[in-house]
Amino acid sequence: MTRFFKSRLFFLALIAAAIAAFFLYARQDDSLFHQLIPALENSLERGEELRTAILDQGILAPLIFICLQVLQVIIAPIPGEASGVLGGYIFGALPGFFYSSLGLTIGSWLAFVIGRLLSDLIRRRLEGAKIYQRFNHLVAKGDFVIPFLLFLLPGFPKDSLSYMLGMSHMPLPVFLFIAALGRMPGTLMLSFQGAEVHHGNFLRLALLLLLSALITVPCALYRKQLLAWLTHYSRRTFADNSGPKAGENHG
């Protein structure tokens, strides 16, 4: 085995060890994370108790929530929508949005790095897979608008997208830009919803939920059609960019 593959296996082992260590900690009955995840399932009834438990940690409270968002991306222990609402509920709309965005960006970066580390180890097995070819089409010739739209539109598996783009040819700085920016509108909406729940402004909450539904439901219903159209657009753009340009002399 070459030094290149050994180094990648080493970094993957470190990541796996860190995740395993966290789970060992989280399984302890007195750990804060052990109390957080079950409470999230019934957040409306136990929301104030959960909010108090986190805020009682003082300056560590934002860090705890950011770590929760990071884990939500990497291993998805809780639904992303629930954690986004939780941020606004605990910290307020704008601080919750900031902490959520930071945690989601870090989590997306780690997922991308894991995908990049795995790519060279299993690329031969992936090259024949249609989904791998599809995602490489999405970033062909620097066409990064389509992955950005996938992060922007609700209903697409953004966490899985981070892993897959790590296995593609997309540069890391470009990925971080589109992942952070593309998640922001949805994250901001969830943070406002959580803040309205905490303040008891249920009329505003209903309006925000209605606005979210008007965007989310069509995207969810037509997700396959949207992805097929975007893939077709990417292939057509790739073919246009690869073809002979007007005025070129091929004689």
Task: Explain what you see.
By secondary structure, the chain is mostly helical. It has one domain. It is built from 12 helices and no strands. It has helices at 3-26, 32-40, 43-55, 61-74, 80-91, 93-126, 130-138, 145-152, 158-166, 172-199, 202-221, 223-242. Helix 4 (61-74) runs antiparallel to helix 5 (80-91) and helix 4 (61-74) packs parallel to helix 6. It is flat and about 55 Å long. The relative contact order is 0.11.
Described by the principal axes of the CA atoms, the overall outline is flat
Low-confidence stretches: none
Radius of gyration: 21 Å
The secondary-structure class comes to mainly alpha
How many E-type strands?
0
End-to-end separation in angstroms reads: 49 Å
> Helix tally?
12
Name the helicity range.
over 70%
Total domains: 1
Quick check: average pLDDT?
A: 76
Would you list the SSEs in sequence order as H and E? HHHHHHHHHHHH
> In percent terms, what proportion of residues is strand?
under 5%
Give the biggest sheet: none
Key words describing this protein structure:
251 residues, mainly alpha, 80% helix, 0% strand
Structure at a glance:
The protein is mainly alpha-helical.
Can you lay out the helices and strands and say which pair or pack?
Blueprint: H1 3-26, H2 32-40, H3 43-55, H4 61-74, H5 80-91, H6 93-126, H7 130-138, H8 145-152, H9 158-166, H10 172-199, H11 202-221, H12 223-242
Helix pairs in contact: 1-6, 2-3, 3-5, 4-5, 4-6, 5-6, 5-10, 6-9, 6-10, 7-12, 8-10, 10-11
